[in-house]
Amino acid sequence: MVACQPMKEFLAFKMQSIKETLASNTVTTISLFSGAGGLDIGAIYAGAKIIWANDMKKEAVASYKKNIGEHIHYGDINDFIPSLENYRGMVDLVIGGPPCQGFSVAGKMDENDERSKLIWSYAKVIETVRPKAFVMENVKALGVIERWSSIRTALMEKFISLGYSVNFMVLNASDFDVPQARERVFFIGFIGNSFAGPDLLAMIKPYRHKSQNVREALSVLDRAGKGNNTSVCNARITLTPNPVMRKSPYAGMLFNGLGRPLKLDGYSATLPASMGGNKTPIIDEAALYDNERPWIEDYHERVLLNPEIAKTETVPSTMRRLTVDEARVLQTFPLEYEFCGSQCAQYTQIGNAVPCNLAKAVCSMVIDVLNSKTPILYSGLFN
Predict the structure, then answer these.
(1) Please, what's the b/e burial string for 35-71 (b: 16 or more CB within 10 A of its CB; e: otherwise)?
(2) pLDDT tens per residue across span 298-341
(3) How far apart are CA 247 and CA 97, in angstroms?
(4) Is the pLDDT of residue 105 over 70?
(5) Both 85 and 158 in a single domain?
(6) Final residue before a domain boundary, out of 322, 341, 369
(7) What is the tens place of the pLDDT at every residue in 4-34?
(8) DSSP notation for 124-167
(9) Distance between alpha carbon 304 and the CA centroid of its chain, in Å?
(10) Could you give the count of Cα atoms lying within 13 Å of 249 in the half-sphere of its Cβ?
């Protein structure tokens, strides 16, 4: 049995119950590769009524059931595709983010990775269910890197052959009220007019909302270890004696492990699913709570002048890892959302998720088209 770790009751920004909102919505939706529900929460607040969902991670499914509903099914999506024939012609929208590790520049970039093949499982669901529209999210690399151009083309051609007007766009989450410079690609299709692609960047423009910075976002939480911010990460922070220097103190490799300090007055880098150990981002408490100059900026300047100090310098006690609750906020999950499983499993669920606010913007654009509130803008003809 997977244990759940509840958030403390404080709700600095109170949201209407996810389950209540879901029950009152009307846009019938199927969710694939749902994880803990980041994309689904955004879709729900955009108007989606999710009637079926799926994931194969037990802890994520437990979190989803706890917070969103019992309609999620645990297991391999390929085992469920035949039964989804029962929903053919009954679904307005399909959403989902197939696992991206095989396409990611942070991974092995292996198209033969079994997880990479799940984009075709997603396409098979579209073929089986025939929704009015779909949203498929993945890593930026799938949308921009030449290595994946043949896969992009084949994927687009598959959707077009099914009768969809389809295109893709790369979005930065910080443009959609997420304090994170997280870039993702979205493939979006609408049934009909498969001879032309929608101008997605023009269509999404009204839904943009520049985010607050990390410091402002984290202001809804108490100090780490107290009140509503109790799930601390105790992974040690140590300096590497052989730093890789960059112009910015927030880049390069100054610490052992891949966790880097967060620039409090800017946006967080992409939160990885590998958080929980020394890959967890670093917070400077003196800078966050007491408005002192970030220690990393001073250290960076001194190392540039004298690289030898990296062999003897120690990290001050005010530097610590990003907590689960802070990661939750930076991914724009509701504060009352309860993640299940171990601390490591919770970090993984958060890092794997589509930021809720980004999901809400994208799904609002699509649902507004389905509800005839906005038209589809076309960018040109396909050859």
Answers:
(1) bbbbbbbbbbbbbbbbebbbbbbebbbbbbbbbbbeb
(2) 999 999 999 999 999 999 999 999 999 999 999 999 998 999 99
(3) 34
(4) no
(5) yes
(6) 322
(7) 443 333 333 344 589 899 999 999 999 999 9
(8) HHHHHH--SEEEEEEEHHHHH-GGGHHHHHHHHHHHHHTTEEEE
(9) 35
(10) 18
Q: Considering all CA atoms of the chain, what is the largest pairwise distance in Å, rounded to the nearest integer?
A: 68
Residue 190, domain member (yes or no): yes
User: Domain limits at 32?
Assistant: 16-211+354-381
Helix axes 58-67 and 343-352, enclosed angle (nearest 10): 80
C-alpha span between 71 and 364 (Å, rounded): 22
Specify the amino acid at residue 267: Y
Is residue 84 a part of any domain in this protein? yes
Residue ranges of E strands in 245-318: 253-255, 282-284
HEC assignment per residue over 67-120: HCCCCEEECCHHHHHHHHHHHCCCCCEEEECCCCCCCCCCCCCCCCCCCCCHHH
User: What is the C-alpha to C-alpha distance for residues 53 and 380, in angstroms, rounded to an integer?
Assistant: 34
What residues form DSSP beta bridges with 72? 53
Give the angle 61-67-70 at the CA atoms, nearest 5°.
55
Angle value at C-alpha 165, between 164 and 171, nearest 5 degrees: 115
Residue with tokens 């976002």: 217
Between CA 325 and CA 337 the distance in angstroms is 10
Tens-place pLDDT, residues 36-84: 999 999 999 999 999 999 999 999 999 999 999 999 999 999 999 999 9
Has residue 3 been placed in a domain? Answer: no
Domain-located, residue 225? no
- The per-residue b/e assignment along 140-177, b for 16 or more CB within 10 angstroms, e otherwise, is bbbbeeeebeebbeebbebbbebebbbbbbbbbbbbbb
Rounded to the nearest 10 degrees, the angle between the axes of helix 38-46 and helix 356-370 is 40
Residues present in the chain in total: 383
Neighbours of 235 (CB within 10 A): 16
Decide the pairing of beta strands 93-96 and 27-32.
parallel
Same-domain pairing of 359 and 274: no
* Active-site residue set: 100
Q: Is the pLDDT of residue 165 over 60?
A: yes
Rounded to the nearest angstrom, the gap between the alpha carbon of residue 271 and the centroid of all alpha carbons in its chain is 8
Residue 114: which of 76, 168, 144, 74 has the closest Cα? 76
